[in-house]
Amino acid sequence: MPVPDLSIIIVNYKTPQLILNCLASVHTFTQGITFEVIIVDNQSADDSQRIIQTAYSDVRWFQMGYNSGFARANNYGIRKAEAPLFLLLNSDTLLIDNALANSVRVLHDQPDVAAVSAMQLKADRQPRPNLYTTFGQMRRAFYILPSGEASERFLLRLLPDPHYTDPNQVEWLSGAFLMTRKTVVARAGLMDESFFMYGEDVEWGYRLGKQGRLLLLRDTHFIHLEYGSSEDNQQHLVTHINRFKPQIQVSQLLWVRKQYGIGAYLVLILHYILMVPIVYAGKIAINLRNGHPLFGELKNQRAFTKQVTIFLQFFWKTLFNRPGFYKV
């Protein structure tokens, strides 16, 4: 069998229908290149393999034997990939144009480019708002300061963004759709397997970016439904002080420690610890002003305290950057 142009790697965790829809879109819109599909299963313990391989018999299926998360499963797929290029593709994605061939062409035509991705759209094909493309954007989101332009200007001065001549160039690319070369990964290394989920593509982007430019192709698109295998994400109430799920927070803190060192990590930890009494005092003051029970309506503050307690369980392990499995 000839070597395909591209290996498509999809991690499955109980999402057979999403993958069927994804693969249908891949076959519908992909033209001009050959590809193989590798699915790495995180112990779904269901009929995913039978359902998907009945529809697509050429899919190469591998079992991890446990819920290994995103980085470990994708690394396994990368090791099994036969093509010189590979694409990490989420199960909850849909192609709407020839995104794969467009991305392959960029990597072939521009050898100084290390990796590419495409623009994310919502199910209604509107652009996804507030997608991070720089490390500064991500780090600024970690800090809980009063809303307003003054806070935004302060954080931007503290954690500025880079400026590139190419409007497509970014600092990191989403692992929902990330195409690169085997030769690039041979130099940069695989994804860090201490991450269970979230943050691993940000840390990897730092290392991939050392091998060449990272491009977010503004004229190439895909739909990202998001959270296809997460049963609890839609139940997570996003507020100003509770912006992230505990697993996201643990992974983000791990990324900051790995990329920016002990000082940056400790500053964030101290920030969150100091915020616990502040958010309670602020809410109590509001209750007092509005004539409400002094200790009423503190659900949001309790959730924040619980989240801080969860990621503090990983404090020493993260502080010393110990290898492990940072799963909440």
UniProtKB/TrEMBL annotation:
InterPro entries on file = Glyco_trans_2-like, Nucleotide-diphossugar_trans
What parts of the sequence cross the membrane? 260-280
CDD domains, per this entry?
A: GT_2_like_c
Q: Which organism does this sequence originate in?
A: Spirosoma pollinicola
What is the name of the protein in this document? Answer: Family 2 glycosyl transferase
Lineage of the species this protein comes from: Bacteria, Pseudomonadati, Bacteroidota, Cytophagia, Cytophagales
Q: Which UniProt keywords apply?
A: Membrane, Transferase, Transmembrane, Transmembrane helix
Q: Which Pfam families match?
A: Glycos_transf_2
Glycosyltransferase 2-like domain ranges (all copies): 7-132
* Keyword Protein transport in annotation: no
The record ties this protein, via Gene3D superfamilies, to: Spore Coat Polysaccharide Biosynthesis Protein SpsA, Chain A (3.90.550.10)
What terms describe the molecular function in GO for this protein?
A: transferase activity
Task: Please verify whether the record's keywords include Kinase.
Answer: no
